[in-house]
Amino acid sequence: MLKITLPDGSVREVAPGTTPADIAAAIGPGLAKAAIAARVDGDLRDITRPLEADAALALVTAKDEADALELARHDFAHLLAEAVQQLFPGTQITFGPATEDGFYYDFAPDPKRGPFTEEDLPVIEEKMRELIRADKPLRREVWSREDLIARWQAEGETFKAQWAAELPEGEELTVYWSGNDWLDMCRGPHLASTGKLDPQAFKLTRVSGAYWRGDQKNAMLSRIYGTGWLNRKQLDAHLHMLEEAGKRDHRKLGAEMDLFHLQAEAHGSVFWHPKGYIIWRQLESYLRRRLDAAGYQEVKTPQIMDARQWEQSGHWGKYRENMFVIPDEVPNTEDEGPVVSHDAAWMALKPMNCPAHVLIFRQGIKSYRDLPLRMAEMGCCHRNEPHGALHGLMRVRQFTQDDAHIFCREDQLVSEVAQFCDLLDVVYKDLGFADYAIKLALRPEKRFGTDEMWDWSEQSLRDAVAATGRNTPEWGWEELPGEGAFYAPKLEFHLTDAIGRTWQVGTIQTDTVLPERLDASYVGEDGERHRPVMLHRAILGSYERFIGILIEHYAGKFPLWLAPVQAVVATIVSDADPYAQEVLEKLRATGIRAEADVRNEKINYKVREHSLAKVPNLLVVGRREAEETTVALRELGKEGQTILSLDDAIARLAKEALAPDMR
Fold it and tell me: What residue stretches are annotated with the Aminoacyl-transfer RNA synthetases class-II family profile domain (predicted)?
């Protein structure tokens, strides 16, 4: 008999082959109906998969939302593949995972038919609902590699056959049947049957191209995306959020507000227009003042460094595919022949600033009294992102980090991390993000350094967050196994925006590897050389991405201190043009970013136009205002207007336009 330990500590003895579903039924009919899967020794498994040994068992229900959503989305992906193959014979399937808010599946359509389009989605959705209503059982089987490859080859599934052949030797290969007429290769787990899904809780959203295995040298596939949930209410809430996100899309608003643009001549690099660069400059000035007050010293380091430096730091071996490399030679100026030779030495555009900061630290002898040393850089970096992965400001090739590195002694680490958490908290709240979560990303499988070093680094970060009182569920505290960098664990800070989306932005990492590899040291109180601990940290992450987040968070309606145009003086009649010019000059003299609109247009037209342009304040002037030296102030998002003397209006706007740290 097997001994199965339940969450309450009780132990049940069952025969080998008993399933979690059998145990749920033995406990009671309510649980038997509610249970959808099980955790066996912590691993998520099918509710109908037989137990093979003594184990700890926890039954999963829809109340365990994270697990339930993962299962449902995995099932929706399989249903999508089955529906497509039923509707479009000759389509090959590849793979389709669950995603953060849904699922997708990649297909190789019959060449005679051509790629799928969004016009195909409604009929595919209806076929998926038909399969759900059929309540087909989902059944797991273990196959031999040879049988599985033979099956795929016989059915013309060349992509699946290739995938099966490349899976590691010794790995258990499993398939899942949908009923008795369709199967897919999958690790699982799945729900017990298709009928466990809500047919009204999913929607197919779009179609795109995708390369097989993500390699542009491989065949182009059709990727169909969907969003999947546990019920219709969740789906409707998500679709509403997507609708809001569409209205807030930073690319759309960036064009409408004349902030920036991107074009193919500089893939992944941003052309900042004057209004967009005002936002950048205000953000940079604000952050620089915060860093100055926190004891940081700002530096500037080279864009290009010798490949040998990147080899020594470890980035050349771990990160080279994401680096732009440059031959260190004069290019051939002749029309014939290669532009560069094959024997040139190599340099690289920096993808990050940290090795250069170590080189600055190494200049001159450092004492234990010099630490902590906080070194900041608004550093322009380049990363060789695939063209297909680029996305507006959110994913670019050239970006500027609000980067800093803190070199400290081991006994200073907890205090330095805690101070950083406090600084970050102030910045996020100043920028309108009161709600954020803190996660600890732990050691990955492939990493530098000893286990003892990782134990100490991870515990130090835990202790630092605990010292600030933020290691609680209210702060979203969570540990993420395997998510750390190859050289260090890290704290991640996840912002929640105005419509509930989360963005991983700030980080701080403890690193004892890079100081060792680049030979950074200080003289301790004992007169001996010691390695400093290096803290890699950023608050915004990159200016480009953070400004994109700000645009979407505020839907373009920036707080006054960040708004590119803070006020527009609009005339009702041409007689007020000279007064409008006087108002404009006084606003600008006070430091307010203002413009005048003296066009021969009706005032309602001007109000509507500047409201659409997200101008925070409209100062309307006519004959009366000119005579009385007043303005009619209209604030964006508010009804009506306020009549103020010109001096009072300017004083009010000047006060409101101050950055948060200057109020």
Answer: 236-559
